[in-house]
Amino acid sequence: MNNVNSKTIETERLVIRPSRWDDTDTFYEWELLPEVTEFFSIRDNQSKEDVVRKYVADSDDPKTRQFTICLKAGTPGIPEAMRYASMQITSRAMLSRAQAGIRKGTLILNLPGSPKAAKENLEAVLPAISHGLEMLSGRPADCAKLTD
User: What is the pTM of this model?
Assistant: First the structure.
C-alpha cells in the first residue's frame, strides 16, 4: 500500500490514518455486508484475494486513497463484558476483536458478525448501556444505582 503522501490526522478521541496491510481482513469482512456492498463495485461472489487486490490498487491511486478510523480511547469495559458473556458460551470468544468507544456523544460498538453472537453480546451489555447513554446526554445519572 502506497499512501506515501497521506497524512495521519489525530483528534482527542480518533486517529484517521492511511490504511495498512493489516486492515485488509477487516475491510474484506465489512465489504461483504449487504448494506455496504450495494454502494461498492465489489460483490459478495468475489474471493477475498479479489477484494484485497482491488483495495490495494485503490490505495495506490491518489484519487481513491484508503483511510482507516481508529478510536484512540475506547470504553474497555463494554468489550470486556461482551467477551466474558461470550466465553460462557464458547471458548472461541477469546478471539473476539470487540471494541467500543465514544465519538461526539455517540456510543460506537463493534459487534460480532454472527447475528446470534451479536444478540448475545448486546444482551450482556444493554442494561449498563442505558446508564452510559444518560451520562453521554448530559443528564444527571446515579452512578451508584444498581440495574440488576
Answer: 0.51
Torsional sign, CA 56, 60, 66, 72: positive
- Rg, Å, the chain Cα set: 18
Ramachandran assignment for 20, one of left (phi > 0), alpha (psi -120 to 50 degrees), beta (any other): beta
- Cβ atoms of 108 and 129 closer than 8 Å: no
Distant-in-sequence, close-in-space partners of 30: CB < 8 Å, separation ≥ 6: 36
131: burial class by Cβ within 10 Å (0-12, 13-18, 19+)? middle
Taking the C-alpha atoms of residue 101 and residue 77, their distance in angstroms, rounded to an integer, is 10
Dist. CA 91–CA 39, nearest whole Å: 36
Q: What is the widest separation between alpha-carbon atoms in the chain?
A: 53
pLDDT tens digits, residue range 46-99? 777 777 777 677 766 667 666 777 766 678 889 999 999 999 999 888 888 788
pLDDT in tens, 99-127: 888 776 778 888 887 889 889 999 999 98
